[in-house]
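Predict the holo structure. Ligand: ME8.
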Amino acid sequence: MNVETPIYITTPLYYVNDELHIGHATTTIYADTLARFWRACGRPVLFLTGSDEHGQKIHKAATAAGTSPKAFADTIVQKFFELWDALDIQYDVFIRTTDDFHKQAVAQLFTRLRDGGFIRKDNYNALYCVECETNYTEKDLVDGKCPIHKTTPQQVSEENYFFTLSKFTQPLLDHIAANPQCIVPEPRRNEIVGKLKEGLNDISVTRTTFDWGVPLPWDKQHVVWVWWDALVNYISALGWPNAESLPTDAIAGRSRHGHETSAAPFAHWWPSAVHLVGKDILWHHTVVWWSQLLGAGEKPPRQVFAHGWWQVEGDKMSKTLGNVIKPLDVAGKYGRDALRYHILREGPAKGDADWRQSAFVARYNSDLANGLGNLLNRSLNMLGKYFGGVVPAECAFDQPALETSRLSLIARVNALYPRLVAAVTAFDLDAACEAVIELVRETNAFVNNAAPFKLAKDPARAKDLQASMHALCQVDFVLCHALRAFLPDAAVRIANQLGIKAEGKLADCIAWNKLAAGHTTSRPEPLFARIEEAAEGKPSTKP
Ligand code: ME8
C-alpha cells in the first residue's frame, strides 16, 4: 500500500427526518477510524459526511411537525453536529443537500445527461416506498411489502422524466470485471453482479407531486428524485464540474478537522474516492450512481465498501420494539472509546451483527480494562517505583528464556505497522484492533513471566529488571501510537501519562526503541474502569 496517495472517504448523507442511531454511528465511526489512521500514516485524506434534506420523507416529517422542510432540516442537522462533536468525529467537509452549490451541480449533471441522450419523458407507474425513497417492482416485494421497511408501498402514477439506466448494464459489468476491488467485501460485489446480470430497467428520476427538491433546470414543474440529488454530493463537494477550490466559503464553520486545500479538488480527490455505506443502499451507490457518472462522462469512485446491519439482542432494531441503541447513551455511560471499540470489534463490517450488552461488557472488560488499562497502569507504576518514572537504557536479560520473550516482543512490535496497514487497507478494522490487543496480551504475559516486582527485590537481578522495564516502556509508547485511530481518547491519555504527544507518522512511531532512555514519564492514572456485571442488572438471557 502506498501511503502517499490521497484518499477521499465518504459516509452516506443521513436523512434529517429523525435522530441518528447506532447504525449511522457505525458507518461514521468506520469512516473516522479510516480517516484518522491514514492521516496518521501521513496520507492526504479528505473525509466527507453530511445530511440528505430533500424528498418526500423529509417533507412528510416536516409537515407532521407543523413546520417547513428547511426549518425542520435546520433543527435536525444541528443534532447531527452535536452528535458528531460529542463523538469527536473529525470530518473535513459537512455537506447539506440544500447547499446552493450542490443544487447547481445537480442541475448541471442532469443537463449533461439530457444532452447525452439519457433522459426521456414517460409515464411512471410504480410502487414507491417513501421510507427508502425508492421504487420497487412486484417481484421485489415480500408479501406485498417493502423488503426493508415491511410497509405497503405507494402506488404512484405520473408523467415524468426517465433515465435510461438499461443502457448501463454492460458498461457496469465491464467496469466491475476490470476493477474487482471496486465493491467490497466480495459477497456484496457478487450480489450486485448477480442483479446486473438480470438486466436493468430505466428509472424515473423526477417527481411532480411535491416540490421539496432540486427543480429540473428546463422544466420547473419537476423536482429531481431525492436519490439522484443526494448522490451528486460526493462530487458537488469537490466543486464539480469546474470549480477551482472546495466550496469552503459555503460550508464555512462546518469542518471539524480542516482539510488540505488543493487547486483542482475534483481531479485531485475523485480518483481515490471510497464510499462507505450500509448494505441497503449499495444498489444506489453502485448501479444508480455509477450510471449517472458514466452518463455524464465521469469515472465511478475507486471503491464502495458496504457493511451489514445491527440487530439488538437478536431482534430487528426498531422504534416500534423500543430497542433502538442511541450512540450518546452508550458513550455517556461507558465513554466514547468504549462505544467505538465495540463497533470496531463486534460491528457489522463483514455481515450482520448483534448488539448484545453481555458481549459489550465482556469485550470491554477483557480487552480494555483487564488488558490494555491494566498493562499501562502496572508498567507505569513499576517504572515510578523502581526507576523514578525515568525510562532506563535498553539491555538484554541475563536469563535466556526471558531474553527470548523480549526478542519476541520486539519482533511483534516491529511487525505491527505493516499489519495495521494491511488490515485497514482491507477495511478489516476488527483485525487491526486484534493486532494491537495481541501485543497487549503478549506483553501482559511477559510481565507475569518476568515479574519485575520480584526482580526488584533481588539486587543480583538488577539487569533483568532494567531489561523488563525498558521493554515495557517501548510497548506502552507503541500502543499509544497504534491506538490513535481506534481509541483516540485512550491514545491521548496514554500519551499524557507517558509524557509524550500522540503525534508523528505511524511508520516512525510504531517501532522498537522510540522512547528514549532518560525520558521522564508522568503520573499513571487508570485508563478504563472495569464494568461490574452486578451494576448492569441481569445479563441477557437470550441464547
Ligand atoms: O439512506 N445497522 O440515509 P439514512 C447498521 N439518505 N446500519 C444501519 C442500520 C442498522 N440497524 N439501520 C440503518 C439514507 N443503517 C440516504 C443516504 S447517501 C447519498 C444518501 C444505515 O438516514 C444504513 O445501512 O436512512 C445506511 O448506511 C444508513 O444507515 C442510512 O441512513
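Confidence is low (pLDDT under 50) at residues 537-543. Residues 12-15, 23-24, 26-27, 52, 230-231, 233, 277-278, 280-281, 309-310, 317, 348 surround ME8 (CB under 6 Å).
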